UniProtKB/TrEMBL annotation:
Subcellular location: Mitochondrion
UniProt cross-references to Pfam families, sorted A to Z: PLDc
Entry GO terms, CC: mitochondrion
Assigned EC number: 2.7.8.5
Keyword Glycosyltransferase: no
Protein's UniProt name: CDP-diacylglycerol--glycerol-3-phosphate 3-phosphatidyltransferase
Domain PLD phosphodiesterase residue range list: 130-156
Top-rank taxon: Eukaryota
Naturally occurring in which organism (per UniProt): Ascaris suum (Pig roundworm)
Length: 448
């Protein structure tokens, strides 16, 4: 990256004012903002998430959504969740909780086309989710877009740290993301008020009963049509002649449908030979695809800090059955990377008593550029994010000093709960890994 501006060449964007970018700090604030925006919505509420939980806070949110529909007869409400995750747990499932909003609201469930045939017949609940998921986290209220990695579930409202960025008053961006959600929804199941489901009438090819290539071509064409709807790329002006000091660039990753905006961007970023740049990357799950890991550890010349969940802050910590060994898998992966990384790369673990860590994204700074950037959204930069799941991110690039400082403060706050990873870290008892996990890690890491 000779300059941050070079990274945006050819990308479509929306110009916004830096003051319209609100950085939300805590899970509690995230929940409060969701309630506030729901109560204020008059035109549309568009929600895209992996699933909705079934606790008290989630049910209160659904109550607010229902009241919004009553209060505003013209309100348009569309909700997109994942089929596999959203139908788990029967009467406690997301679908069961959301059905009361239908038909006034449209609730869609995306079913990965790769779960078909014998896989669909024999893979049990929960395990079948490794095949692929709808993972985009987009919360749109009128012309306000809240993008995050957080799901709509109790822990994400209380003690599971994530990132949350609210873009206020951008109709162009809200329209874009609504069209993106609708493109996926049009190729999904639709929930009926009795709890049953049927394929949306707009879906001309069944996701798993008809040919995979035909379904993939259908949804890819619809998604690409949305991506092409943004204005053609314009050079980012840093000399004060532009009408905006901040631009946002949506990046969509749907590798199963050959949509690879995020992958293309990150490959360029991680290949950078610019030693004046500093990257800070965070993910709740440290599990780069091999291409990213090789570029970061061997090819790039930039300085880089990587922040990820410690075993205790991993959402699978103390899980039942095999899921309880997932934190050990990530220890193996992080140790392998640690052994190969160059000296300009440092690794940090997030540990906060009573909390888990789910934040994801990037911050980009360069001493040669007046710009700073951040990438925020749903991706974890692993094999699943690149090849199996549906992901949406937002690249925010700004020359505004106040916003640049706020972005720096955001990652500094997250780093406050971190400790640097050293060789001795992997010798501690809390990083002990069962031998069988080490043996199978290389074969199963791409499913997590």
């Amino acid at each position: 990256m000779d300059d941050i501006q070079d990274l945006t060449d050819g990308l479509r964007s929306v110009a916004i004012d830096a003051d319209c970018v609100k950085i939300i700090e805590t899970p509690q604030q995230f929940y409060e903002i969701l309630i506030k925006l729901t109560r204020g919505a008059k035109e549309r509420v568009i929600l895209s998430t992996l699933y909705l939980g079934n606790g008290t806070l989630e049910r209160k949110l659904v109550n607010e959504l229902e009241e919004a529909l009553i209060r505003c007869p013209e309100l348009r409400m569309n909700i997109l969740i994942d089929y596999l995750r959203g139908t788990r747990e029967g009467e406690k499932s997301s679908a069961a909780i959301l059905k009361r909003l239908t038909p006034r609201a449209a609730v869609y469930l995306f079913h990965t086309p790769h779960l078909r045939g014998l896989l669909k017949r024999f893979l049990p609940e929960r395990t079948n989710e490794i095949v692929g998921l709808q993972h985009m986290k987009l919360y749109i209220f009128d012309d306000n877009v809240l993008i995050s990695g957080a799901n709509l579930s109790d822990s994400y409202f209380t003690c599971r740290q994530d990132r949350y960025v609210l873009i206020e008053g951008s109709r162009q961006l809200a329209d874009f993301f609504e069209r993106l959600v609708d493109a996926v929804s049009s190729c999904s199941y639709i929930l009926k008020s009795d709890g049953s489901m049927e394929i949306d009438p707009r879906c001309e090819v069944h996701p798993y009963r008809e040919k995979l290539c035909d379904y993939a071509a259908l949804i890819r064409a619809r998604v690409l049509n949305v991506l092409d709807s943004l204005p053609s790329a314009k050079p980012f002006s840093v000399d004060g002649t532009s009408d905006s000091d901040t631009r946002v660039y949506p990046l969509v990753q749907m590798g199963m449908f050959s949509v690879n905006q995020e992958n293309d961007f990150l490959t360029q970023l991680f290949s950078s030979q610019d030693n004046s740049s500093t990257l800070t990357l965070t993910s709740g799950y440290f599990n780069f695809i091999d291409d990213y890991g090789c570029l970061i550890s061997k090819t790039g010349k930039y300085a880089m800090n990587i922040l990820f969940a410690s075993p205790q802050a991993n959402g699978f910590y103390n899980g039942s059955g095999l899921s309880g060994y997932v934190p050990s898998l990530y220890v193996v992966v992080s140790e392998l990377f640690f052994r190969t990384m160059r000296s300009e790369v440092r690794m940090f673990e997030y540990t906060r008593p009573g909390w888990t860590y789910h934040a994801k994204g990037l911050w980009i700074e360069s001493s040669k550029s007046p710009l700073s950037a951040t990438l925020v959204g749903s991706s974890n930069y692993g094999y699943r994010s690149v090849h199996r799941d549906l992901e949406a991110q937002l690249l925010i690039v700004t020359s505004n000093e106040h916003l640049k400082n706020r972005l720096k403060s955001e990652h500094s706050r997250l780093m406050e709960w971190s400790s640097i990873v050293e060789a001795s870290t992997f010798l501690r008892p809390d990083h002990a890994v069962p031998r069988w996990v080490r043996l199978f890690a290389r074969y199963i890491r791409n499913f997590f």
